[in-house]
């Protein structure tokens, strides 16, 4: 199946957006402008990341709490096992539950030092699957976990990574959000293998609109995602053309979403990097319209 251009996309896809906690007042404003821009698209949820080693603990909490208080978007908090005892994690999770946050993105996390190996805290959780089980004992959170279409770099093999994903879901997670990837085939292969491994939970592709290949390459190396050669070629010579880079970023990500949609995907998670415009444009191409507008048009 294929969908010609973007015709026939009727906005029935569900979308969610990921943000990171801002470090300065200026970044706070950028983030907040983005949240306000994306809110009318009625996302299923937005999530806020947790910095390495819990370094953003307070900022993540403050950002999630503000979104929950000032918007109608269900807010999810990322939480990792790095450098934290089970008791400390319980404290963070309980504080979320008390402030009305019901959705946690549960992750193992990576050590703060680049390239260092994850070593569990002596009284902490050893993996995301353990964290999911622990969180479920604290409160009946809705839990999302991470998945890797191109396999997590530390996994022994793709099958053991899938087994691990299944453990996370069996422990109580209800969906997996994937690491970013750049070919629809990578996702379809992964979906097929996951089904064979007995995984029937929602697999939500994580979409990263890339406007800076050099920066993305650095990050991709650490997280097991592959940047295809054609992507380098696309951005070559555009260092001094930020607007062209933005247009290309939207085109490439929208084309990926279109193929995923044609292959039956109806949930998309966008890594916004705290900027709304690319994600907004891609959602628009997917047929998403601000809440109320679609009904007005149909009336
Ligand atoms: P796990 O599921 O625990 O897996 C880690 C590795 O161990 C995998 O290779 C897995 O196959 C292997 N493994 C686990 N258990 C076993 C076992 N019993 N036997 C054999 N192998 C096993 N990082 C942050 O610091 N903050 C964030 O906010 C954040 N958000 C993210 C959001 C998404 C959607 C994604 C995809 C990633 C995010 N990350 C974040 C990155 C993530 O923390 C890293 O990728 C980390 O290295 C792995 O986390 P995990 O939850 O997938 O770990």
UniProtKB/TrEMBL annotation:
GO terms for cellular component: cytosol. It catalyses: (6S)-5-methyl-5,6,7,8-tetrahydrofolate + NAD(+) = (6R)-5,10-methylene-5,6,7,8-tetrahydrofolate + NADH + H(+). GO terms for biological process: methionine biosynthetic process; tetrahydrofolate interconversion. One of its GO terms (molecular function) is methylenetetrahydrofolate reductase (NADH) activity. Its cofactor is FAD. The keyword NAD applies. Gene3D superfamilies: 3.20.20.220. Its EC number is 1.5.1.54. Pathway: One-carbon metabolism; tetrahydrofolate interconversion; Amino-acid biosynthesis; L-methionine biosynthesis via de novo pathway. It holds the Pfam family MTHFR. Keywords: Amino-acid biosynthesis, FAD, Flavoprotein, Methionine biosynthesis, NAD, Oxidoreductase. Belongs to the methylenetetrahydrofolate reductase family. PANTHER family: METHYLENETETRAHYDROFOLATE REDUCTASE, METHYLENETETRAHYDROFOLATE REDUCTASE (NADPH). This is Methylenetetrahydrofolate reductase.
